[in-house]
């Protein structure tokens, strides 16, 4: 009897593997699809604690935490990057999470630029990574390099209003480029008369089919 009780207590303290982790994964993906990031974080935590082997669980939870502004985002994304360092998105996500977590630390923000460099090196024709690197470079006063990134991003995606907005903001922060900034602003208003364009930001990770 004592042995049975001991076995039951050990079983109760053991993370649930298999179906429960798989269902939590599916719940997390479903929540991510409709931008319910708090629900996604909780579901992916259950999947991870349940022993999921899906490395994207850390990627998805890291992104959810990034969107929620919560601690642990960068830690999750570093784990994802160690699992699949060839994936450009994990480096871009680390860069943005690092910038968010260390917003007032100039050295940490410089490191965020290096992380985004790794994303751009893997996918040099992805406009959003170039625009985000431009945004990060503005934060460390590398304005000339930032403008080069925005210009290349706009070459790849010429009518993306978020990139135009990022470039406009960079020109304003740089100073001394009022005429050029006004041209960007006019172009932005033509593309987005309602002024609803957000600043350049990290898009959600690609959603798995299941």
Given the C-alpha coordinates, what overall shape results? elongated
The low-confidence parts are 1-17
Mean pLDDT: 91
The first-to-last residue Cα distance is 43 Å
Structural class: mainly alpha
What does the largest sheet look like?
A: none
Helix content: over 70%
Number of strands: 0
Query: What is the helix/strand order?
Result: HHHHHHHHHHH
Radius of gyration, taken over Cα atoms and rounded to an integer in Å: 21 Å
Q: Count helical runs.
A: 11
Kindly estimate the percentage of residues that lie in beta strands according to DSSP. Answer: under 5%
Quick summary:
This protein has 210 residues and is mainly alpha-helical.
List keywords for this structure.
disordered N terminus; elongated; mainly alpha; 11 helices; 210 residues; single chain; 71% helix
What this model shows, in words?
This protein has 210 residues and is mostly helical. The chain is 71% helix and 0% strand. It contains 11 helices and no strands. The chain has helices spanning 2-13, 19-33, 37-49, 56-68, 73-83, 88-101, 106-122, 127-139, 143-156, 161-174, 178-191. Helix 4 (56-68) runs antiparallel to helix 5 (73-83), helix 4 (56-68) runs parallel beside helix 6 (88-101) and helix 8 (127-139) runs antiparallel to helix 9 (143-156). It is elongated and about 60 Å long.
Topology:
Layout: H1 2-13, H2 19-33, H3 37-49, H4 56-68, H5 73-83, H6 88-101, H7 106-122, H8 127-139, H9 143-156, H10 161-174, H11 178-191
Helix pairs in contact: 2-3, 2-4, 3-4, 4-5, 4-6, 5-6, 6-7, 7-8, 8-9, 8-10, 9-10, 10-11
């Amino acid at each position: 009897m004592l042995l049975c009780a001991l076995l039951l207590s050990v079983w109760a303290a053991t993370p649930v593997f298999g179906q429960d982790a798989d269902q939590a994964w599916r719940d997390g993906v479903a929540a991510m699809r409709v931008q319910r990031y708090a629900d996604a974080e909780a579901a992916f935590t259950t999947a991870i604690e349940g022993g999921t082997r899906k490395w994207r669980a850390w990627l998805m939870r890291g992104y959810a935490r990034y969107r929620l502004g919560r601690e642990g985002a960068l830690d999750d994304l570093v784990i994802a990057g160690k699992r699949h360092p060839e994936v450009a998105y994990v480096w871009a996500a680390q860069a943005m999470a690092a910038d968010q977590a260390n917003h007032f630390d100039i050295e940490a923000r410089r490191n965020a630029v290096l992380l985004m460099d790794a994303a751009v090196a893997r996918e040099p024709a992805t406009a959003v990574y170039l625009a985000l690197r431009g945004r990060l470079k503005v934060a460390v006063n590398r304005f000339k390099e930032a403008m080069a990134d925005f210009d290349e991003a706009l070459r790849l995606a010429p009518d993306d209003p978020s990139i135009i907005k990022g470039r406009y903001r960079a020109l304003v922060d740089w100073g001394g480029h009022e005429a050029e900034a006004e041209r960007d602003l006019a172009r932005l208003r033509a593309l987005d008369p309602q002024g609803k364009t957000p600043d350049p930001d990290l898009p959600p990770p690609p959603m798995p089919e299941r």
